[in-house]
Design goal:
The protein is an alpha/beta fold and about 300 residues long. The protein is about 25% helix and about 25% strand. Strands 3-2-1-7-18 form a 5-stranded parallel β-sheet, covered by helices on one side. Helix 1 runs parallel beside helix 2 and helix 1 runs parallel beside helix 6. The longest helix has 23 residues. It is elongated. The structure holds NADP nicotinamide-adenine-dinucleotide phosphate (NAP). This is Thioredoxin reductase.
Amino acid sequence: MERNVFDTIIIGGGPGGYTAALYAARAGFSALVLEKLSPGGQMATTDQIDNYPGFPQGVNGFELALEMQKGAQRFGAQTELAEVLRVDLRGPMKEVVTQKETYRAPTVVLATGASPRELGLPGERELRGRGVSYCATCDGMFYRGKTVAVVGGGNTAAADVLYLSRLCEKVYLIHRRDQLRASRVYLEPLKQAENVEILWDSQVTELLYGETLTGAKVRHKKTGETRELSLDGLFLAVGQLPNTQLFQGQVELDAAGCVVADETTRTNLPGVFAVGDLRQKPLRQVVTAAADGAVAAHFLEEYLSQRQQ
Ligand code: NAP
């Protein structure tokens, strides 16, 4: 095999990427996974995953990531830890460039996932790691016995509040509407948690800080009343932004920046597939990302065999 040439290059080592790698490698194709830091993507920052089948007691996200990587490696998939700087996905032979190497393949699987959205408040960026966090399971332990708030109303916010309620003295949940978007499984445990207070119809308007975060101003949207919360930590769980900047101008993206691809994971470019959180999809879960990976491998196999005819 020519150096740095593969049947498929998978950009991103989350559950979608490693499942694509497993299926492709098991089907006899040479597969390279390019991963920036360590396997797992956002899944690796999840303490306990209870809704991935086969783990009746739940599973730690980082451990599951390592197992997924091992599963793909067993069939010969390779991993390189390297950040992709640019891609050229348009021709029949795609090019993926990292700081050290240029890799080439007739098929590419885009699996770069999504990153947490910011609130955009003054001080938010500077306070990252000094009171502001986007990952409760990564940083929660620094706030043991303290008072924190979580902003958001989706599954991430709900899961974060429950996780933090077991560590912290007090947890506020600040949500901009009067109803959570989170699935119903979270509602009862949230009601039962004695140290959780939900602030409905509320928005953080200002971060209060010196060297580190000291609190936040929270405005009730209906009454206009502003309340000052004294806080040691603020966890932002206000959704995800797809990591698709690298592909802009080549792969078709929708207004939200998600790759336009249906259940086949095919994009507008022949030989380019999109799996997991970065593509348009109704449910972003480990299991749906993994399913995408399998589907992408199926269609890339079809694409490669038609190419050879
Ligand atoms: P999400 O479902 O998009 O929810 C984002 C939340 O943040 C919404 O409640 C939204 O409010 C709020 N929000 C957005 N922008 C805001 C702003 N500028 N100010 C204040 N609030 C703002 O995001 P997510 O919770 O991170 O979940 C992402 C995906 O991962 C989802 O598909 C989710 O199901 C999945 N996930 C699943 C699990 C699980 O199954 N256990 C756990 C975590 C994540 P509105 O409701 O008013 O729009």
